[in-house]
User: What shape does this take?
Amino acid sequence: MRLGSRSPDEFIQLLNKKNEEIQQNFLSKMLEKTKIADVKVMMGDSTITEQKTFDPNEVTNYLENIIQKLDGWSLQNVSITNNEDLRRIFTKFEITEGNYLISGHLSLQFHVLLFYKPVQRVIDSQKELAEILDHTKKQEEDLSNNSDQFVLNKLKEMGYKDFDHQKLFEIFYEDEEFSKRVYAEIEKESSEEFKKLTKKKNELIKELDSLLIETYQTSSVLIDDTRLVAGEEGCLCTLDIEFIKNNNREGLFDPRKMSNIVKDNILKKLEQLQEQINLK
Assistant: This one.
């Protein structure tokens, strides 16, 4: 049973109220931990501008502090997903009370924007890279446009006579070592100047990658599981209570069958979680 779901039961309504308090407390903390700062960055066209960002380490440290102090709970280490421009910092935890399992999920989802560091080396590297690309463009185009036939000719020189384009694809797909040997032979045909320029080009691309800076943005809103999966920005705070029967979890149960002791202890555990969320 997801807390926050409608129920006429008085105890569930009490838990829903506590859940709402915890969510608001968590949202307030996320607003604090994602405080925005301005940072100077360089655009791809060398324009220097200011970009708003926050420090994800503040969120990570905050969640780690929570789970370190949740005594008696089964805890999941704070994790960070890294799916291109979308990231999520999260932790999960659970604890049993009688035949009931309380589980929680805290997370922040945010987007990553890439810029260059505002340093002269970025401009110099881009200029040098552009000059190399101009020098190698014609040879790369020729190689790309005639690559299949070029490979077939090379194979014939190596003693393979009966290859067509389809057979070439199959062999290269199935035998990686063979394809490496063939392309190694082809590479020998390239001029020394082209090899040097290609090597320098790769070095410059790698250097430019090292000069990238990440900035982070999120929204100061609570989201649910559906919006989380859809990739929306925001923070998630969910709590579930399930009935354990024959080692199986059941989300539907009759709260009227709970003893008063179990009810009191469940409420105390939620208050324990709330206390840790509110700590600095």
